[in-house]
Structure formats: structure tokens, C-alpha cells
């Protein structure tokens, strides 16, 4: 059965025995703060720093906060609460937890497949940050000017005005005379130069190798090229860090997050204090927050807000289910959900001030409008912001702090994605965690495979593969998974069962607002977002270079492939269990992880009685005790009571 019989004497109460594990076979967080900080580290990621500020200024500045907070309350937060409560009650990973409704077991596999794909490219970002961190330990950062071997006449440093008769590009004394010094624009497209900043050329030519030293740009149809050794070694180091932190499971990662989840806030405060003292900082902040309420009448701003908060909280990846599955049964997950949502949104807003104060300074130094300095995604973290840091006094110090912050933000989220994959496999195949040696070998194999799959993104043409995974491995498929998960729990497992389960854990039932969201409001809203995004679909590209046909096909294959787990596994479960009715019915061993908690509920007390009552076979006359193997694969986290 799916419980730990050794803890059956008495149900541990809230606040008692924090150091002891309720679920001895599977383990629990050492303390409540382990879970909170792990969730903060997971949800507060790179998107809070490099995506939210950009979306805010692009979609009406301060006016964007109105749809953002509304979408938080009706779209993301209900699903966030549902996943955390579901995982805590079952104490199982995102696949095995569908003992509650075996027909939807494929929903868990879809989540895990998405998490695995995200893990592959997410560590590449950490590898980039490690490379920039190492490069920052110099007397000056290497992207500070245009006087390097990788720069050409396309490099222009507007922060200085050095030119002469043979070098007529501002800040560039390395390149020769440029016959067409005018910068290209929408109005001027011929006899002009498409300039780049020093940090842009460093990112594309030195780190990525995407642009060769003679200015040739890789296309997706070109050979991908050999791996860049410096990025590949940084990727290997990133995976070694992840493996070391996850080697002993949540007992190790739960302690690491005490640093990785809190350090970014210290750096953001330092960068904000430094940023607001710079010239032009006020212009950047005003540009970030200046409200344009007329955009509230457009559908784009509402869709952008919904998509951002959906991704920001990290719902439908299965990671929240995994992390909450290590909670103790009496943990007040409702309070945790509200705290985490508030911290996540507050961090996004706060990060915008730290980012745009420096962007405003950069605009002031170059004489360009703030809008032309601002970028989104990797362009903000590895091009625009480092450019601003390079113009500060003692630039290497600020650069080191910034990239340590990027690394810690990324590592926290990566912990959750990889742990999601590991936990799922070990829940499904308990022999993988029979002892520490097997666990260590299994985890090393998973990390090694993901490292190898990430190597193509370390090649000169690998940025296209990165863009493919970054933009499409978790897109429409994530919306489908979220809708199926929410409707499956609400209607197939049953909203009454779910509410009763929460009451068992917390001592109270969720209010009408949560029930209304779970039953219809949130799934309908997510469906609207998915349809709207599909209507606005554009063929994928990177840096205005369109993907090849096979590249676009791969994007759709990733999205469709993960969703196909849902019907395929559903069909398998119907066949295994002898019919649709059996596949819809929860397994006999579904319930809380500790036997004592079963005795608090009439439903689970009756199930326990049936599982321990021998039945007589009408043909042989022998006693036949119904066991877990008759219904589902047993989990190592529960022991059959005999």
C-alpha cells in the first residue's frame, strides 16, 4: 500500500518533529523554509529579470500591472494552489500521483518531458553566465570597448567619441575608414552600416561563434560547426554543480537554496542602489513605469500578462507537484502559495527598477533613446545590461555580482526541473533508489545524457537550437497540459474528493472563489490564451533569420510530442485495467503517505479496511487479499500493510 506503515502509530502534528521524516522511505524537507526557498528559487528565475521589465515597458508601463495582477489571481494562482495541494496530499511525483485517476497518467509524463527539454537548454544559459563570470575577473571587462581582435568597423562605442581621419567610427580606433558611416535605420537601408555595440559583438563572435570574425553570420541551413570548447567546458561545469547539489536529494538541495534563493535579492538591492545614483537612471525608470492606459483596451496586453504570469510561477511543469510532495502532510500549503505568489510578483516589479536604472544610464551615455538600448531575453542579460555595467567605474566588480546573480537564479530553477525528472523515475521504478549507490549512478547518467544533448547548443550554429527549445519546448503544449490537469482533478478525480483531501491536510476547505476557478474560470482563461497565441502565431526565427522548414517542424514535434503522452498513456491504462471505468477509478493505495492519516477519513478508513480484509475466492475457496499489484505498480514510498 502507498503508505509508510512504520509511522502508523500516531499522526505527527504540525510543528512537531521537524527533523523527523513522516515518509521514511522517500524523505521530507528538513524544515518548512527548505520548501519555501526551493519554490522561491524555482519560480523566481531568469524570466523575472530579463522578460518582465521588457514586457512592462512594451505594454503600457505601469498600466501593465493591472492585467498582470488580475491574471495572477484568476489564471496562475488557482493552478499553483491546486498543484501544490495535490502533490502534498499524495507525496508522489507528477506521474505516480495519477493513481488518483490512472487515465491521466500521461499528463504527468507530458509534464516531465517538458521539464526534461527545459533542463537541456536552461543549463546552457548557466554555462553562458559562468563564461561571462570568468571573463569578468580582469582589470576591465572584455566587452568594454571596440579595441579587440574580434571587433570590426561594425562595432561602435557611443559612450566615447574617439575618431580621427582614418577611423571615423565613434569609439573604434581598430577598424579602418568606413565609407558608409551613417547608421542603418527604417528610413535608411542602403549605403549605411548596421552597427553593433562592443557587448553585442562579444556575445555573438566570442562566446557563441554565431558570427565569424569576418562578419559572416551562421544560418540555420549552414553546418552547425564544432563545439566551442570554452562554452562546452562551462556547460560541463554547470552540470557538475547540478549533480553535486542533487546527489543526496532534497536534503542537499534544500540547504543549497538558502544561498541561491536569497543571494539574488542582495545583488538586486546593490544594483538598484548603484543604479539610481547614475546619470540617466530617472529616464530609464520613468520609461519602465510610464503608464499608457489606452493599451488596456487591446487584447495583446492581456494575453502578454497572462502568458508572463503563467510562466513566471512555473505551473504545469510538474515541478511544483514534485517539490510539494516532500512536504509533511500538515504543512499549511495554502499560506505558502500566497506567500510565494506575492514574492514572485514583487520580485518581477522590483527587478525592473534595478534593470532600467542601468538601461537609462546606458541611454544617457550613448545618446540613444531608452527603447533602442532595451532588449528582451538573453539580449538583456548578455548584451544590454553588461554594456551598462561596462560603463560604470569598477566595472568588473559589478559584472561579477551580476553574473553570480544570473547563475544563482538559473541554478535554483534548474534544481527543480532536474529533480522533477529524477523523482518521477524513482517513484515509477523504485529499484533506482534502493540504496545510495544506485541513486548516484542513476542521477549521474541523467545528468550526463542531458549534458551531451546540450553540446549542439555550444556550437557556432547552436543558437538556433537554443532558440528552438527556449521558444517552443514549453509553449502551446504547456497550455494543453494545464487544462487537462485542472479539468482532470476537478471532474474525473472529483472536486468533492479534492476538497475533502485538502480539508484532511489543512483542517479547512477552499472557499467558493477557488472552486469556481478550478471548475471553469481558469481552464477557460487558459484556453483563451492558447487560442489567442495560436492565432498570432508567426514562423520561428532568430535575429530576423527564419528557421528552415525542418527547424519549424522540430518546434511543432516537441510541442505535439509531449502532448501525445496524454492520449497514448490513457489508452494503455484502459487496456491494462480492462476498461475505461477501471482507468477512471483511483487505485486502492491512493491516499496520504502515513497510515494514521487514513484513519481520519471515512473514505480512506473504508479503503484501508478493504485492503486488509481477506476475501474468499468463490471457485477455489482460498483467501484472496486484494493487493496493489492488482491495480497499479507499487511505489517505494509506501509499504503494503500486512
TrEMBL record:
PROSITE patterns tied to this protein: NA_NEUROTRAN_SYMP_1, NA_NEUROTRAN_SYMP_3
GO BP term (any one): amino acid import across plasma membrane
Region (Disordered): 1-23, 610-642
SUPFAM superfamilies the record matches: SNF-like
GO cellular component annotations of the record: plasma membrane
Keywords: Disulfide bond, Membrane, Metal-binding, Sodium, Symport, Transmembrane, Transmembrane helix, Transport
Entry binding sites for Na(+) 2: 44
Binding positions for Na(+) 1 per the UniProt entry: 41, 43, 48, 312, 344, 409, 412-413
Transmembrane segments: 35-53, 65-86, 107-135, 229-247, 256-281, 301-326, 338-363, 383-407, 445-468, 474-493, 513-535, 547-575
InterPro entries in alphabetical order: Na/ntran_symport, SNS_sf
Recorded family membership: Belongs to the sodium:neurotransmitter symporter (SNF) (TC 2.A.22) family.
PANTHER family hit by this protein: SODIUM- AND CHLORIDE-DEPENDENT NEUTRAL AND BASIC AMINO ACID TRANSPORTER B(0+), SODIUM/CHLORIDE DEPENDENT TRANSPORTER
Name by which UniProt lists this protein: Transporter
Amino acid at each position: 500500500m502507498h503508505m509508510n506503515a512504520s509511522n502508523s502509530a500516531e499522526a505527527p502534528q504540525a510543528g512537531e518533529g521537524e527533523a523527523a521524516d513522516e515518509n521514511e522511505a522517500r524523505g521530507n524537507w528538513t524544515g518548512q523554509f527548505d520548501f519555501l526557498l526551493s519554490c522561491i528559487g524555482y519560480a523566481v528565475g531568469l524570466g523575472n529579470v530579463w522578460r518582465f521589465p521588457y514586457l512592462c515597458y512594451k505594454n503600457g508601463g505601469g498600466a501593465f500591472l493591472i492585467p498582470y495582477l488580475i491574471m495572477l489571481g484568476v489564471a496562475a494562482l488557482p493552478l499553483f494552489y491546486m498543484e501544490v495541494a495535490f502533490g502534498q496530499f499524495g507525496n508522489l511525483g507528477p506521474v505516480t500521483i495519477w493513481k488518483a485517476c490512472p487515465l491521466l497518467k500521461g499528463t504527468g509524463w507530458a509534464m516531465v518531458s517538458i521539464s526534461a527539454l527545459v533542463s537541456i537548454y536552461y543549463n546552457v544559459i548557466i554555462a553562458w553566465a559562468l563564461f561571462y563570470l570568468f571573463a569578468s575577473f580582469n582589470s576591465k571587462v572584455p566587452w568594454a570597448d571596440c579595441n579587440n581582435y574580434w571587433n570590426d568597423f561594425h562595432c561602435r562605442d557611443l559612450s566615447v567619441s574617439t575618431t580621427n581621419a582614418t577611423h571615423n567610427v565613434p569609439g573604434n580606433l581598430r577598424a579602418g575608414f568606413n565609407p558608409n558611416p551613417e547608421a542603418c535605420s527604417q528610413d535608411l537601408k542602403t549605403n549605411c552600416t548596421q552597427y553593433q555595440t562592443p557587448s553585442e559583438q562579444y556575445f555573438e563572435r566570442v562566446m557563441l561563434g554565431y558570427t565569424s570574425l569576418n562578419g559572416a553570420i551562421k544560418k540555420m541551413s549552414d553546418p552547425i560547426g564544432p563545439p566551442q570548447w570554452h562554452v562546452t567546458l562551462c556547460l560541463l561545469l554547470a552540470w557538475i554543480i547540478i549533480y553535486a547539489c542533487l546527489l543526496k536529494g532534497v536534503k542537499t538541495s534544500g540547504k543549497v537554496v538558502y544561498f541561491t534563493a536569497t543571494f539574488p535579492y542582495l545583488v538586486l538591492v546593490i544594483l538598484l542602489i548603484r543604479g539610481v545614483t547614475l546619470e540617466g537612471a530617472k529616464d530609464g525608470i520613468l520609461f519602465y513605469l510610464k503608464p499608457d492606459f489606452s493599451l488596456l483596451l487591446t487584447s495583446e496586453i492581456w494575453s502578454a500578462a497572462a502568458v508572463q504570469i503563467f510562466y513566471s510561477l512555473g505551473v504545469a511543469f510538474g515541478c511544483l507537484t514534485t517539490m510539494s510532495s516532500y512536504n509533511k502532510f500538515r504543512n499549511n500549503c495554502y499560506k505558502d502559495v500566497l506567500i510565494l505568489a506575492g514574492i514572485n510578483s514583487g520580485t518581477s516589479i522590483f527587478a525592473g527598477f534595478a534593470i532600467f536604472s542601468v538601461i537609462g544610464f546606458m541611454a544617457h551615455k550613448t545618446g540613444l533613446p531608452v527603447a533602442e538600448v532595451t532588449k528582451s531575453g538573453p539580449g538583456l542579460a548578455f548584451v544590454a545590461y553588461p554594456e551598462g555595467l561596462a560603463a560604470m567605474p569598477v566595472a568588473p566588480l559589478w559584472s561579477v555580482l551580476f553574473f553570480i546573480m544570473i547563475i544563482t537564479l538559473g541554478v535554483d530553477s534548474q534544481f527543480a526541473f532536474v529533480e522533477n525528472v529524477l523523482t518521477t523515475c524513482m517513484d515509477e521504478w523504485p529499484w533506482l533508489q534502493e540504496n545510495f549507490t544506485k541513486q548516484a549512478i542513476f542521477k549521474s547518467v541523467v545528468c550526463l545524457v542531458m549534458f551531451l544533448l546540450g553540446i549542439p547548443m555550444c556550437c557556432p550554429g547552436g543558437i538556433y537550437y537554443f532558440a528552438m527549445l527556449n521558444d517552443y519546448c514549453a509553449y502551446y503544449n504547456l497550455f494543453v497540459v494545464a487544462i487537462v490537469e485542472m479539468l482532470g482533478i476537478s471532474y474525473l478525480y472529483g472536486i468533492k474528493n479534492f476538497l475533502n483531501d485538502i480539508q484532511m491536510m489543512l483542517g479547512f476547505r477552499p472557499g467558493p472563489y477557488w472552486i469556481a476557478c478550478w471548475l471553469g474560470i481558469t481552464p477557460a482563461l487558459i484556453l483563451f490564451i492558447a487560442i489567442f497565441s495560436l492565432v498570432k502565431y508567426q514562423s520561428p526565427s532568430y535575429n530576423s533569420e527564419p528557421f528552415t522548414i525542418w527547424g519549424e517542424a522540430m518546434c511543432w514535434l516537441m510541442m505535439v510530442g509531449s502532448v501525445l503522452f496524454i492520449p497514448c498513456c490513457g489508452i494503455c491504462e484502459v487496456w491494462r485495467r480492462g476498461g475505461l471505468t477501471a482507468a477512471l477509478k483511483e487505485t486502492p493505495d491512493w491516499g496520504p503517505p502515513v497510515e494514521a492519516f487514513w484513519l481520519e477519513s471515512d473514505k480512506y478508513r473504508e479503503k484501508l479496511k478493504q485492503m486488509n480484509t481477506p476475501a474468499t475466492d468463490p471457485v477455489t475457496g482460498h483467501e484472496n487479499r486484494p493487493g496493489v499489484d492488482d491495480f497499479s505498480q507499487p511505489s517505494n514510498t509506501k509499504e503494503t500493510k500486512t
